[in-house]
Amino acid sequence: MSKSKRVFVFLVIFFFAIIFAHATAFSFSKAKYVFFFIGDGMGFSQVDLARSFYGELVFLKFDFKGRVITTSFDGGIPDSASSATALATGQKTLNRVIGMDYTRRKKLKSMAYLAKSKGMKVGIVTDVSLDDATPAAFYSCQPSRFNYYYIALDLVNSGFDYLVGNDLIGNSKKYRNERPNIIELARGKGCRVVRSMKELYSFKGKRALILFGTKEFSSKNDVTLATFVKGGIDFLYNDRGFLMIIEEGKIDWACHANDVKNAIEGIKALDEAVSVAFSFYKQHPEETLIVVTADHETGGLYLDSSYKIKWGTKGHTKAPVPIFAHGTGAFLFKGVLDNTDVAKNIMRVAGLAF
Ligand SMILES: [Zn+2]
Question: Are the CB atoms for 36 and 291 separated by under 8 Å?
Answer without folding.
Answer: yes
